[in-house]
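Work Package 3 (structural annotation) set out to generate three-dimensional models for the target panel prioritized at the project kickoff. During this period the team completed the workflow that converts sequence records into discrete structure tokens, so that structures can be stored uniformly alongside our sequence database. As a representative example, we reproduce one entry of 310 residues exactly as it appears in the project archive.
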Amino acid sequence: MTPLKIGTRGSALALWQARAVATQLERLGASARIVTITTRGDRRQDAPLTSIGGKGVFVKEIHDALLGGAIDLAVHSAKDMAAVCPPGLGIGAVLPREDPRDAFVLPRRDDLDEIAMRDRPGVHGHSPLFGTGSPRRVAQLRRLYPAARFEPIRGNVDTRLGKLDAGQVDALVLACAGLRRLGLEDRITDAVPVDQCVPAPGQGIIAVEARTSDESTMRLLEMLNDPMARTALEAEQAVVEELGGGCQLPLGVFAEIQDGTLSIRAFASSMNGVSFLEGCITGDAAGARETGRRLARELASRGARELLQP
């Protein structure tokens, strides 16, 4: 049996995700081999994402390899993907969602109360410095910590944790999902509730792409699909698609299903975080995309598209 070639980035988290997919495929009797692809985003670790094209720089080379036949499927963090797949590609499977929340990560010697105190005038002499380059996170966390400063920080998780423990920043803001998958759950100081910091669309979800013309691979991937995570992702991507927001704009969307009812929460702000809009909607889980579009249209009627202009 010819192994299916799985394309992925080379970070520890990306490789973990690819291995998780490979393991599930092997349980179904398929053979799989992981192919590591270096993307523009990986090569330009010195530059903020906003200056080199946003999170899309983490998927272009992988898409090219998939379309060109160098790989058979691609494994992505769904939050790195555009709301619409390139022509000829489609999402064959969505794996069960891990914790979608953002997390505060503090040095081992500190705790969240200590950092919070630094936001008060006259205590410690300075406001907290948070390491994150995400406009979405900055816009929302400024409301919780009005005096905080934010420093773009990139690199793999271990690199960022090293900078934190060396004192370069007071705290990191990372995704709970990545930390948990890498066995670093003990580094999560506090998970931020989704109503205080709405996650990025697709955060915590692993998506597997394949060529739509490759019917055998697409049928195989269907067996890995988690319906609830797939529905949530479709709803979140529908909001992004309708608003025309990119993955590096201050737009948060989170969908969840309880007792067959779909709830979607969204946050959109100006790039400087001064102006923002929030919205929430419920609907039938069977109509996830249309429910997402309805929320997007409601936000658009209040000026969301203008806010999201870079």
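The domain at 102-192 is CATH 3.40.190.10 (D-Maltodextrin-Binding Protein; domain 2).
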